[in-house]
Design a protein that fits this description.
Elements: E1 4-6, E2 8-10, E3 17-24, H1 27-37, E4 41-46, E5 49-54, E6 64-69, H2 74-91, E7 102-105, H3 115-118, E8 124-137, E9 140-153, H4 157-162, E10 171-175, E11 181-191, E12 194-198, E13 204-208, E14 212-214, H5 218-229, H6 233-247, H7 250-266, E15 289-291, E16 296-298, E17 304-305, H8 308-315, E18 329-335, H9 339-351, H10 362-366, E19 373-379, H11 384-400, E20 407-412, H12 425-435, E21 440-444, H13 452-469, E22 476-478, E23 484-496, E24 505-516, E25 519-530, H14 534-552, E26 560-567, H15 574-584, E27 591-600, E28 607-609, E29 626-631, E30 634-637, E31 656-660, H16 669-679, H17 694-709
Parallel strand pairs: 18-19, 18-20, 20-21, 23-26, 26-27
Antiparallel strand pairs: 1-28, 2-9, 3-5, 3-6, 4-5, 7-8, 8-9, 10-11, 10-14, 11-12, 12-13, 15-29, 16-17, 16-22, 22-25, 23-24, 24-25, 27-31, 29-30, 30-31
């Protein structure tokens, strides 16, 4: 069998004992000790204490003496390893940043990916970035090395002023003597070489242009390319995207990581006491990897297939016989001067594209909807007021005839995304139609420019979402029935703010997915709240959901109920766990068990699979469904694999680490991982496998949509209590 390896390298742990001094933790004390004695000592916070490690056996401050053995204290060992690496790079004149992980940005001209596209003098750079971290894998300590890229600006704001590039409303940062760059605020005005900068607290300060830098964010990056290259901007940005993605491909990533690994192996890099840091080559983990089987989908008349496209074509949607919006009434909202092209587009959506591989029959044929009744309403201008008048006229006309639209198709523009919520036809349109329980599908005018060959794929996904928004169920997941009734609760979130430095709201979204008769179905419970109200909302939603489902599924006294929580969080906090326990107390007639599963894509761990070393795309990428047990409570799993990559420049797919919280009473990590894998195929937003399970992706969409809608005057989440809230309105 061909080898499979991680970008993880076994660390050799010193056998001998270390003497340390322990003093009470204080943030100021820790900072001052590192500043004054960092060259000769290492310092680590350990709970309520500070541990001091010495190079020569002397200590700058006396404390409680301790003798520790590193092989029994991996946390301390990892801290000393990273401390030693940082010291080494600083001595070389490099400027490593952060600690978890250590980050190193290359300053070599040949490591600037933009140089070959825009030249070495261009003020922006895309530099090679290495990160180094530590992790315990299957009980052994490892050094993790990753390689990716980072956008960097090498010129200060004076350069951009001299170039005539507008700085107003752009974010700027300051640079400290050690190279650390800190967010300052947004430029409110420019007078000569003096910038007025509004800080996050609303105060305005004035700084010289040569003392600050533009933030290297995507907006500043794209806008400057637009400024320098005009109509060539899209071509330049696509070339940059391909260059970065190719760099992040498995073959290049593995080679780059290997170079840094070899460097660490050949150099004498030491812990604080002079002990050499030793790492070995990565072991072959092939025998420890698992491969998930494809999930099976259920369609009309219990037809089954492991490919959703095939199952729909052969059997029809799951609710083919029970769907209540056949021959749907559809209103179309579009700009007056785009009406002809929009009508052609809508006809393709409904009737299909004859030469399309997957979309010959359109929404009507694929989902057996009958014949749609379509009426077009046009806006005179592109502003929110014109959209409001047109949408209200459409709703009024249907209501006057005693009816309601089954679906609204609203044409918007890409530029609407840059508008404030209160001025956005996109969000205004959603809110007005939702108020009248009408599902909405938006599409951009820019989409109409696609040739039919690619438009067919876009319309195929759009039709799927439309059917789900109207209350249809395209397919369900077939799963093996268990002895327990199961609820899977996804917790999503979104940052809602009009700009950097303003008061962000962390909006939490809650959606539930439950199993009944062996099938997972998305529940009609959804809510979004600010973070401080989240635990109360979680308790309420969970309570209501259990009450509703216990009747629907006819739970009996003594039945086992399993609650599984999925969340993208740094960690589950005590309040969340207590909120769940509070609900459980109310249902003592059942045997309730629960699992808290943290889902993380930000971990820097990769699988390189030699079986795809000669593939045309995704070389060294593992297949979808490849899993590796990292510990009893952690699993690395790939929801997107080599075959799901579209082209050879798509980069190396990113796996997820699933981490089961120790407070969980249900602890089968393999079962939970298989469930996550299946949920990643259960999105009705696209036929392609999702890089996240729907428990997370749906919850994030709910949080984002309700978070922005709540900023509109007159909006109330209670609107979603009606039929619209029972559909996948947020897709």
């Amino acid at each position: 069998m061909l080898p499979i390896v991680l970008n993880a390298f076994p660390l050799k742990v010193p056998e001998w004992e270390f003497e340390v001094h322990e003093i009470p933790y204080d943030k100021g004390t820790l900072h001052s000790l590192r500043a004054a004695h960092g060259a000769t000592h290492a310092f680590r916070r350990q709970g309520a204490n500070i541990l001091i490690f010495s190079r020569d056996g002397t200590f700058p401050i006396s404390g409680k003496r301790q003798t520790i053995t590193l092989k029994d204290n991996f946390g301390m060992f990892y801290s000393l390893v990273k401390d030693g690496l940082i010291r080494h790079f600083v001595e070389l004149g490099r400027s490593p940043s952060n600690f978890n992980p250590i980050e190193l940005v290359s300053t070599r001209s040949q490591d600037n990916l933009l140089a070959s596209i825009l030249g070495e003098t261009y003020p922006f750079k895309i530099c090679v970035k290495y990160s180094i971290d530590t992790r315990t894998i299957r009980g052994h300590p490892y050094l993790i090395i990753d390689c990716t890229t980072r956008r960097v600006i090498k010129e200060n704001c004076q350069f951009f002023l001299n170039a005539g590039f507008g700085l107003v409303d752009r974010y700027v940062i300051t640079e400290k003597s050690d190279g650390y760059r800190k967010f300052l605020g947004s430029v409110s005005s420019v007078k000569g070489n003096l910038l007025s900068v509004m800080q996050s607290d609303g105060h305005i300060i004035r700084v010289e242009a040569n003392e600050v830098y533009l933030e290297a964010n995507r907006t500043n990056f794209d806008d400057y390319i637009q400024y320098t290259h005009g109509t060539q901007k899209d071509i330049v940005i696509e070339n940059i995207r391909r260059s970065v993605s190719t760099f992040n491909g498995g073959e290049n990533k593995k080679n780059r990581i290997e170079i840094l690994k070899n460097y660490i192996q050949t150099k004498f890099i030491a812990l604080i006491d002079g002990t050499r840091i030793e790492i070995a080559n990565p072991p072959n983990i092939q025998k420890h990897c698992l491969q998930m089987q494809k999930p099976v989908f259920v369609f009309n008349d219990n037809g089954e297939a492991d490919w959703a496209e095939k199952g729909l074509t052969q059997n029809g949607p799951y609710t083919k016989r029970t769907f209540d919006r056949n021959d749907p009434s559809i209103c179309v909202i579009c700009a007056q001067h785009d009406k002809g092209r929009v009508e052609q587009f809508v006809r393709k959506l409904l009737k299909g594209i004859s030469n399309s591989k997957y979309f010959r029959n359109g929404l009507e044929g694929k989902f057996t909807l009958g014949t749609s009744h379509v009426e077009v309403f046009t806006t005179i201008t592109d502003d929110a007021h014109a959209y409001k008048e047109t949408i209200e006229a459409a709703i009024r006309k249907k209501a006057d005839n005693g009816g309601r639209w089954d679906l609204a198709l609203v044409q918007v523009r890409q530029s609407f995304k840059k508008l404030k919520v209160t001025q956005s036809p996109y969000y205004l349109g959603k809110s007005l139609f939702f108020l009248h329980q009408i599902p909405v599908q938006d599409f951009t005018i820019e989409l109409l420019a696609q040739p039919d060959s690619s438009l067919g794929y876009s319309l195929n996904n759009m039709a799927l979402a439309c059917y789900a928004k109207m209350g249809g169920i395209p397919w369900l997941l077939k799963s093996s029935p268990t002895l327990s009734h199961e609820l899977v609760i996804g917790i999503g979130s979104a940052n809602i703010a009009q700009g950097r430095g303003t008061a962000n709201q962390r909006i939490m979204g809650i959606t539930t997915v439950f199993s009944g008769d062996g099938n997972y179905i998305v529940s009609n419970t959804s809510k979004a709240v600010i973070q401080k109200e989240y635990c109360n909302a979680l308790t309420s939603v969970l309570d209501n959901t259990i009450e509703k489902i216990q009747k629907r599924m006819n739970w009996q006294k003594g039945d086992t109920i399993r609650l599984i929580f999925h969340a993208q969080v740094k960690k589950f906090n005590k309040e969340e766990i207590e909120a769940v326990r509070a609900v459980i107390e109310k249902y003592r007639e059942y045997q309730i068990e629960y699992a808290f599963l943290k889902i993380s894509e930000d971990h820097g761990l990769h699988i390189f699979d030699s079986a795809t070393a000669d593939a045309k795309k995704g070389r060294l990428a593992p297949p979808r469904g490849k899993m590796l047990n990292l510990s009893k409570h952690e699993m690395l799993i790939y929801l997107i694999g080599q075959r799901e990559l579209r082209q050879d420049s798509d980069g190396h797919p990113r796996g997820l680490i699933l981490d089961l919280h120790k407070a969980s009473t249900f602890k089968d990590i393999k079962y939970l991982s298989a469930q996550v894998y299946n949920f990643a195929s259960h999105s009705w937003r696209s036929y392609f496998p999702n890089p996240m399970p729907v428990t997370i992706s749906y919850s994030d969409l709910i949080a984002r949509n309700l978070g922005w809608l709540n900023q509109l005057p007159g909006w109330n989440d209670s609107i979603m209590i009606g039929k619209i809230g029972q559909s996948q309105w947020f897709l």
